[in-house]
Every structure is written in C-alpha cells, then in structure tokens.
Design goal:
- The chain is an alpha/beta fold and 288 residues long.
- Helix content is 30%, strand content 21%.
- It has eight helices and twelve strands.
- The strands form two sheets. It has a seven-stranded mixed sheet, covered by helices on one side.
- The protein starts with a helix and ends with a helix.
- The relative contact order is 0.12.
- The model is unreliable at 1-14 (pLDDT under 50).
- The structure holds zinc ion (ZN).
- Zinc ion (ZN) is lined by residues 104, 106, 182, 207.
Length: 288
Amino acid sequence: MIEAISMLAWLAGVSGAPVPAVDPLTQPITTSRSAEWLTPAEPEEIFGETYLVGFGGMSVALIDTGAGLVLVDGALPQAAPAILANVRKLGFDPKDIKFILSTEPHFDHAGGLAALARDTGATVVASERGAEGLRMGKHADDDPQLGYGGSWPAVAEVRAVKDGEVLKLGTTAITAVATPGHTMGSMSWRWPACEGRVCKAVVFASSLNPVSADGYRFTSKAGEPFVEGFAASYRKMDAMPCDILISAHPDNAGPGRYSDAPGACRTYADSSRKRLEKRLEEERASAQ
Ligand SMILES: [Zn+2]
C-alpha cells in the first residue's frame, strides 16, 4: 500500500499534475539515417540575428526579429527537446517563438513541429498543400514518397500562406517562396539578416531532392506536375537574391552547415536539376 501511494505520488509529478509516462509527440522515428541527421551541433550565429539551432545533418534556423522569434523547420519528433535546448543556449526563451515555418510535410523536417508548437505556443506556418500534410501527419496521396508509408505527429492548427506572401514580425519581413517538386507543398523562406547597415539575403531552401518510393515514375502522368514544379523552383532559385543558403538537408548545399558562396542558390538548383535529368533518363531507358 505504501509502495502504491509513493508510486502514485511519483506519477503525479512535483506539480501534482499527471505526467504522461511517454510523450506521444516526441516518440522517436528511427531510420537508417536518423542518427546521422541528428548529429548534435552547437547553436551558431550565421549573420545578423539569424542562427542555426539544429543538427549536423538536419537544418533548423532561428531568427530574432526584435519582437519575437521565428523558427524554421522542426526536424524529427525526438529532436524537439534538443532544438529548444539550443534556443536556450543562445540566451533566448522558447516561449518567445511566435512562428514556426515549415519547408515540407515529411517526418524528417516536420516530425518535431507538433511538440515544438505545443511547447512554445507558436503558430506553425506552411504552404496550402504543406498545411494539409502537416494536419494529417502523413504523405499526400500524390507524394512520390507515398509508398514509404508511415506517419508523424500531426499539427492541429497550421496557418497557410501563398507563394510570395510576406510574414512580418518586428523589423523582419520573411517571404514565402513556393518551391514544389520534392513535394507539391514544398516552401522555401527568404529574409534579410542585417548587421548595422549591411544586410544579406538568407534563403532557407526546401529539399529539392527528386526521390521517390520504389515503383514511382516522374515520367508518368502523375509525375508531370512534379517535373513542372521542379522547373519552376529552379527558375526561382536561379533568380532569387541569395547571399546565404541554408538547405533543409545541409549536405545538399555543400560541406558546411550553410553556404555563403556566390551563387549558392543557383548551385543548389543546378545539383537538383542534374539529379532530376539523370532520374528521368533512367526512367525512359527502363521503359524501352
Ligand atoms: Zn522530404
């Protein structure tokens, strides 16, 4: 009986509120690459009030607008506590995060959004199609990776923004740039980071990786809008002001955690363009 009472007291936690034995929103999703993606990394200032608070193999950015914080992407569900710890390490309070911007509705970039939104009170923001995917917590019916199956914690409330829409907070204006192809809802985000009178255009680019589950064909009728989406995304990446590129998977943009090489966004688009061309050639060859 005594043991039962002390067990109950333990379960009730110090505040008296029931503590769930497991947090459903941070349960790990483990794949052959998840440990590599979540290689721990120190938080780092890039330029102005723009920081990296993610991992060695998975980008998460933080912007201090002077009137609240903005986070970009949420990595995997189990990553949420480490992201918030990195925010605190920089001296910020996670409760000051007002918006969390999403680049795509896939578990590796969006799995942590539900826990992060709950723990910060922030509003999750995505494209229309991105928002649909985040609310479901699974692949859209037309997603080339649908065949992989699986799900991740859904985000109950997501604010949808259109291509070109500008999100303002404090002195910072963040532009939504639709970059479909990897998913139809993929969205990149661009903002100026300033130090004194010097401002640099920072682009947080969504994945432009032309990958799919087995059996999917980008050369099929279903693949057409994706190939067209990639083409439109390349045109935008080629034309966009881009002094600093943070790519959703950092290894897609070169060796560092970000790239400030001239033409970084064009190089990023070019590497996807080459991979897509190769993929389309292989599909056409296998159809003959
Ligand atoms: Zn993805």
